[in-house]
Specification:
The structure holds 2 protein chains of 2 kinds. Chain A is 45% helix and 17% strand. Chain A has 17 helices and 10 strands. In chain A, helix 2 crosses helix 10 and helix 11 packs across helix 12. The radius of gyration of chain B is 23 Å and the shape is globular. Chain B contains 10 helices and no strands. Chain B has 2 domains: 41 residues; 215 residues, MetI-like (MetI-like fold, Orthogonal Bundle). The chains are: A alpha/beta, B mainly alpha.
Chain lengths: 337, 261
């Protein structure tokens, strides 16, 4: 009896919350999908939590989350309409897509600062950025290489003097000292390094220390959707922010859900990941402006790096590629964590 | 009496085969576990078998769901690919013009690495079981086509001439002589395609999915979860072996005369 009353009151409460939004879309929820840049893991916790708690449904969106993979480009899938929304690589992949005339726009940025750092071992030969000269550094040749070259250039080191090689998945060459500098995302490779070497034995070189930043994990949507169903964007953002706030507020409950979704993941790693993701998402301007904030200055800095290295054929119209209006239509108090 | 003794002899030999298989597996398991312990191999290179089995046992539901999903994708792609391959081989056998025009294109299609094909399959079929079955299909149909054609072409001309001299129609010639004659050759491809289709399905899962052995493998690889990698490999090889053995078993039943030749 008590249980039934509880269910009824929960349903009633959900109905009260859901009613205004569902009506805004004319009754039935709109079917939509979100393509991630990778497989289910705490990096996307807020989105999964928002689905689980019915936040998208309350906004009138029937959302399906589609995981990514190593050979999938989220920009392509969103541009062709195969997926409605996407968590894509980052500002770098948005520039590249716009440069190739793919009709996608970015309407939110997850990681406010560069989510990867360059690391060396404290007992190794690289103590300062000047020591990179003549040493072996590995990085991803999908954009991170330009960040490394820019960092070196800013520090007055000629990138040609550093032996920069493509980085394989495994951290073993670095652990064994065959590689002097390794690129690590703060939420993934860094965890492995911490387990194998220990964080205290590592020196971090962050792009931000050299005046460079590449915000990543960008929310994208096709120009068509942005034009024809503009109301969908703030609705998606509101629900996503609610999910992320919940994820940060009760990280244990959030990871419980992740372990249910992907039981073979390592819980300890996922807990580490969520804590790091929180830091990345609340860094920079997001501390004042709230989640998914698009900081034009940061975007411009990243843009200039890729333009400088001719990764993009010409300047990208940043005002057209990054739209803040959907986010700004949400009250600041509702965006902040 | 004779029949009874034959059956018991058959059972005895089946029992022997199973026994040998179990002994072989046990030997590998012991060698694995012992070499890690004896030579002090670091877990990043090769974890102990017991640790790998522990990992599977601690989340059995995840592995069971993945096996079921990957098996379904593989089987769907395999069966349709095999049927299509046999059909295509037969059509090519009867229509030389069609063979000369289409066959080179199928050869070209097979030079495309399956991984390059994956992104397109996702665009076309989305994140469905069907999309992965398409990858399994793609790797299955070609060897079956080639071997069907080869088998049909290798019929003894004297036997063909004999049947024709008795006025056998085309249909009868195909079903009574050419097709049965091609079966051993077709089964070579069918056995080969078991592993190919499994690879196709697993690679297909690398293009955005949440369940499947390919997903487990990918996730473990990128998280540097070495135990997870070996667990996924172990389960995948068990599935592949079972699949191969099943097809080989069917082969023994269908192409029963092969052993007598």
């Amino acid at each position: 009896m008590i249980r039934r009353r509880q269910v009824l009151s929960t349903l009633g409460a959900a109905g009260l919350v859901a009613a205004p939004y569902v009506r805004a879309f004319g009754g039935a929820p709109v079917k939509a999908s979100l393509r991630l840049k990778w497989l289910p893991q705490a990096q996307f916790m807020g989105f999964y939590l928002a689905v689980e708690k019915g936040y998208y449904r309350a906004e009138g969106i029937d959302l399906t989350i589609n995981p990514g993979g190593p050979n999938l480009l989220t920009e392509n899938l969103v541009a062709t309409g195969a997926d409605t929304f996407g968590v894509s690589g980052g500002t770098d992949s948005v520039f590249a897509a716009r440069d190739k005339k793919l009709p996608i726009v970015c309407f939110g940025i997850g990681h406010q600062i560069t989510p990867f750092v360059f690391v060396s071992k404290k007992d190794g030969p690289v103590k300062t950025i000047q020591d990179f000269k003549g040493r072996v550094a590995t990085t991803w040749f999908t954009g991170a290489n330009y960040v490394l070259e820019s960092v070196l250039a800013k520090a007055g080191v000629n990138p040609k003097d550093v032996n920069i090689q493509p980085q394989q998945v495994s951290a073993t060459p670095f652990v064994e000292g065959k590689v002097d500098v390794f690129t690590a995302t703060l939420y993934n490779e860094f965890y492995t390094l911490d387990k194998r070497i220990g964080m205290a034995n590592l020196t971090k070189f962050a792009a931000e220390d050299y005046g460079i930043t590449v915000p990543r994990d960008t929310l994208i949507v096709s120009e068509t959707t942005a034009k024809e169903k503009p109301e969908l964007l703030p609705a998606f953002l509101r629900a996503s922010i609610r999910g992320w706030r919940d994820a940060f507020a009760d990280q244990k409950a959030a990871i419980d859900l992740m372990m249910k979704l992907a039981p073979t993941l390592q819980r300890e790693h996922q807990e580490f990941m969520l804590a790091e993701i929180k830091r990345l998402m609340l860094a920079g301007k997001a501390s004042e402006e709230g989640l998914f904030w698009i900081d034009p200055a940061a975007v411009k800095t990243a843009h200039d790096v890729f333009l400088n290295y001719k990764v993009i054929s010409g300047p990208v119209d940043l005002k057209a590629a990054f739209i803040s209006a959907p986010l700004q239509s949400i009250a600041l108090a509702d965006r902040k964590v | 009496m004779a029949a009874a003794s034959k059956t018991s002899a058959g059972l005895f030999s089946t029992g022997h085969t199973v026994l040998r298989l179990v002994a072989g597996l046990a030997a590998i398991a012991v060698a694995w576990q012992a070499s890690v312990l004896l030579f002090g191999i670091r877990p990043y290179y090769l974890p102990k078998l017991s640790v790998v089995l522990d990992a599977i046992a601690s989340t059995p539901a995840a592995y069971a769901a993945s096996v079921a999903r990957t098996a379904a994708e593989t089987l769907l792609g395999y069966v349709t690919g095999a049927a299509f391959g046999v059909l295509l081989g037969s059509v090519f056998f009867h229509h030389k013009v069609l063979k000369d025009t289409l066959f080179p294109m199928f050869v070209v299609s097979q030079t495309i690495p399956v991984i390059a094909f994956g992104a397109v399959v996702v665009l076309w079929f989305g994140n469905t079981l069907f999309a992965k079955a398409v990858m399994a299909f793609y790797l299955t149909f070609f060897p079956v086509t080639v071997n069907t054609l080869l088998g049909l072409q290798s019929v003894d001309p004297a036997q063909e001439a004999l049947m024709k001299s008795f006025g056998a129609p085309h249909r009868q010639l195909f079903w009574k002589l050419q097709f049965p004659n091609a079966l051993p050759q077709i089964f070579v491809a069918l056995r080969l395609a078991t592993s190919l289709s499994l690879v196709g399905a697993m690679v297909g899962e690398w293009f955005g999915d949440t369940t499947g052995l390919g997903v487990l493998l990918l996730q473990a690889t990128y998280n540097e979860n070495v135990v997870g990698i070996w667990a996924a490999l172990l389960v995948a090889s068990a599935l592949g072996t079972l699949f191969y053995a099943s097809v080989a078993g069917i082969e023994r039943k269908v192409v029963f005369w092969r052993a007598e030749q």
